[in-house]
Design a protein that fits this description.
The protein is mainly α and 341 residues long. It has a four-stranded mixed beta sheet.
């Protein structure tokens, strides 16, 4: 099968493309179908409580005394630990760790204020409120995670903690020093925070259904629903940021999505539960090894996303809640009539 590498269109093609866009400007400016009207949806600004600023500003030898006024505000982190000698010892080790202090100082330089992030998340949660009018909004915190890049955003019982040390820039030297792969580090930048926050919210909603993917198709549509959730909450954010692709990977997957779909069908993979095979197409990687080193990774996630988009386009009255309630992946595939591109 001929999988094409991204190429460069000639000047005539560029001229014709630009001309068409100019002629069709009203159509180009239309809202995508997943973008709700939120003109009447108002929420309080999403405040982000900066736990790291409080913690690293305290005298480590007087933690119990100095943290006492903040125990209620930061109960998500502290619990009753300030009054427990063993927990206090752990906290002391945390705030005096030279590596964590360095991370904190670099966070302060990269993130002196969180006003822009707060605005971005306020907009995203306005869309969230439009889809889930009765759902409570989470309380947001920032903290130093120790570069927990596997879980850069954590959620529990209405509280969401953003590890800002996971977003210090793709070229942050410590990422290379501790062995984070380059293909992962490219997503450790500021622009990815809203997408990671909304992916976490999507996982909360899917998790409530106790949805357990088994086959490749299940994993496709699990990821597809998470990404469609991002569509709905971040309609103005580029697809490349939602899925974490470089510009070259986006070009490749757009050129080859039809061939990818044919590959899955020809090799009868959709209903396979072989975890090693599923990991090859759905797991984190620099590319999809079954195709080429120029290919995009996570091609199963991309394909599932397009299937869900087609399903929702053909069923415009379906809510996100209803989409997430569908347990049968075959039903979504059949009703989407997806054929690749």
């Amino acid at each position: 099968m001929d999988f094409r590498s991204p190429g460069h269109p000639n000047s005539l093609v560029i001229f014709l493309f630009v001309g068409c866009c100019l002629l069709l400007m009203p159509q180009c400016q239309q809202k995508p179908p997943f973008q709700k009207d939120i003109s009447r949806i108002q929420i309080d600004p999403m405040q982000i409580d900066r736990y790291e600023q409080l913690l690293f500003s305290l005298n480590p030898y007087r933690l119990e005394e100095e943290l006492e006024p903040y125990v209620e505000t930061y109960a998500f982190f502290l619990g009753d630990g300030v009054r427990d000698p063993w927990a206090r010892q752990q906290l002391f080790a945390y705030v005096t760790d030279p590596q964590l202090i360095e991370l904190y100082e670099d966070i302060q330089e990269a993130w002196p204020g969180l006003e822009e992030l707060s605005e971005q998340l306020t907009l995203a949660f306005r869309y969230y409120r439009a889809h889930f009018p009765e759902a409570p909004l989470p309380r947001l915190y920032s903290y130093v995670s120790g570069i927990d890049h596997e879980l850069p955003v954590r959620y529990a019982e209405g509280h969401m903690a953003i590890g800002l040390d996971n977003y210090l820039g793709r070229d942050y030297p410590t990422y290379t020093r501790i062995g984070i792969p380059r293909y992962r580090a490219i997503r450790m930048d500021k622009e990815y925070v809203p997408a990671d926050v909304m992916r976490t919210m999507a996982e909360v909603h899917l998790g409530q259904r106790q949805y357990e993917p088994e086959t490749l198709l299940d994993f496709m549509l699990y990821e597809g629903r998470l990404l469609y959730f991002a569509d709905c909450m971040l309609p103005l954010v580029p697809d490349s940021v939602k899925i974490g692709y470089t510009a070259r990977q986006m070009e490749w997957v757009q050129q080859n999505s039809g061939q990818v779909w044919s590959w899955f069908l020809d090799n009868e993979l959709l209903f396979s539960s072989d975890r090693q095979m599923i990991q090859r197409f759905a797991g984190e990687a620099p590319f999809t090894s079954a195709f080429s080193r120029d290919s995009a990774p996570r091609t199963a996630a991309w394909t599932g996303w397009q299937i869900v988009r087609e399903y929702m386009r053909r069923h415009p009255g379906t809510s996100l809640d209803e989409l997430f309630d569908i347990a049968d992946a075959r039903h979504i595939l059949h009703e989407s009539r997806y054929r690749g591109r």
